[in-house]
């Protein structure tokens, strides 16, 4: 499938055809760095001074590259499709090859970063437990009541919360059985067929 | 199948990292154990010493982390399941750790066995620690409702840990003499039961 670039995007990327290939590679490296660690506007100003253009042009060029990379990695487009999409910009053959190489080298990392951006439910962080026996209370002496106290630590978007739960051994057994049943479901034919087709 | 794993199978990663451990000399391994035990007892681990100890065997940072991890697991798991030094020694040798290394490890383990178990006992799950109790006895002379009240009251300030947020919360209660007497009797009964268990 082809990538459709907006007119603004094409304008921003046009700047790349006016500079050396070495500069384009450098911009490519900066774009990947920014995608991994966040952007730094000082770099735009430094590059703008060296190339004798406005820092806004440099910023648009790098951001255009970043967007090109993320969109292509997101859609996981093939080499041929990438080359066809980039053809529209009217760049030289060498520049096209450079862009293709930039895409292929960084695709895997891009996809990993992008996968971390989807919304998340709170997930398991840690589980502490304790087995107690209640022997007496104010109301009743000479009891033998086993209980399991659990502290479930969950992590949600960087925030940690703990939930304190208590259960008796029979309910705990039931919990364990249900969860083992869920795990065993993974190995059923239905699930296996689906997983095979996704791979 | 292994006592130090709680009568379960030994995890695959432990098996794999035991061969990493065997690359260090047995003397260095004993010193490594001392460092790991210090870390488990929250006394602080000296990473510089650790990298010096492992530099002969040319450990990369991944190997260093793995060897600290596997030693932490073996020592804390053995303390958790109350395994004695000899059983630990024979089980580790079964897994392929050379004899000199095993002897060094088990000697360190036996030396600090009690301290490790104490530390693990302290860090067991406890909900809502009571951290401090302060009290004050007041005598009310008079109030807006009644001219001569003449009643003693106890004010109790309890500082306890919130089980879900782990932060300290303060609760202040004021108790009349009768209610306080009941509270004291009930608590003394609970204390008697606790003492009978020790």
Automatic annotation (TrEMBL), chain A:
Domain of life: Eukaryota
TM regions (residue ranges): none
Cited PROSITE patterns: COMM
Pfam families linked to this entry: COMM_domain, COMM_HN
Location of the COMM domain: 123-190
InterPro entries to which the protein is assigned, alphabetical: COMM (IPR017920), Commd2 (IPR037354)
Listed PANTHER family: COMM DOMAIN CONTAINING PROTEIN 2 (PTHR15857), COMM DOMAIN-CONTAINING PROTEIN 2 (PTHR15857:SF0)
Protein name: COMM domain-containing protein 2
UniProtKB/TrEMBL annotation, chain B:
Coiled-coil residues: none
CDD domains from the UniProt entry: Commd4 (cd04752)
Family matches, as InterPro entries: COMM, COMMD4, COMMD4/6/7/8
Ranges of residues in domain COMM: 129-198
PANTHER family in alphabetical order: COMM DOMAIN-CONTAINING PROTEIN 4, COMM DOMAIN-CONTAINING PROTEIN 4-8 FAMILY MEMBER
Name of the protein in its database record: Comm domain-containing protein 4
Lineage summary: Eukaryota, Metazoa, Chordata, Craniata, Vertebrata
